[in-house]
Amino acid sequence: MDTASNPSPGFQRNPGRRITVDPFDGVVTVTFADAIVASSDKALVLREQDYPPVFYIPFDDIYFDFLQPTDTSTHCPYKGDASYWNATASGEAEKDVMWAYENPYDEMIRIKDHGAFYPNKVRIEANPNSGAAGADL
Prior knowledge:
Layout: H1 9-13, E1 19-23, E2 26-32, E3 35-40, E4 44-48, E5 54-58, E6 67-76, E7 80-89, E8 92-100, E9 114-117, E10 123-128
Antiparallel strand pairs: 1-4, 2-3, 2-10, 4-5, 5-9, 6-7, 7-8, 8-9
């Protein structure tokens, strides 16, 4: 990987910071207002010190019919700029339920084209394959 093209300023300032991204061996399903808004057997688990693990689901497995982009954005010195989406389903609506780093820094390129959801705004079910590691999420 050519880390000179879009390197993370966070990792440059704090090279000891550890963020891991690993495949989840199982199926992750995200539900909002009784509508499935995402379901994937290709989810990634991002683990970052001081934060709970976060599932990142490939865009191909997210049902964008229930999601609308917002003007909300945030910046992470390790991952880059995040974009957000609102959810609408079954007559219910919630602001900024999903975020994604559409152009992440090189060190986090694995989460490109993946979305993550706030567990306090949607229901996230992670069903590991039998005997799979990672069931402790």
